[in-house]
Amino acid sequence: MLPIDPHADIARRAWIPCPHCRDDRHCADCGSGRNCRDHWRYLLSTTGSVLHVQCPGCAYLWDHETHFGTGGPRPAF
Fold this sequence. Notes:
- The chain is mainly beta.
- The protein has one helix and four strands, in the order E-H-E-E-E.
- Strands 1-2-3-4 form a four-stranded antiparallel β-sheet, with no helix packed on it.
- The N and C termini lie far apart (42 Å).
């Protein structure tokens, strides 16, 4: 298991599922799209529309593309 990044700050969080441990899978709050008090991720930094995050539970590091503000994929209507 990796250590938590030394620049991780609990005040900078993101509520996205961890692709490694999926600890949010059976959470009612996460399943309904609400910000859960237990299943947040450290938001380490951003580059454009990409979030660089780490899971506090399993310490997995990954990049998450949000497509926010990029004119990226649009939802189908």
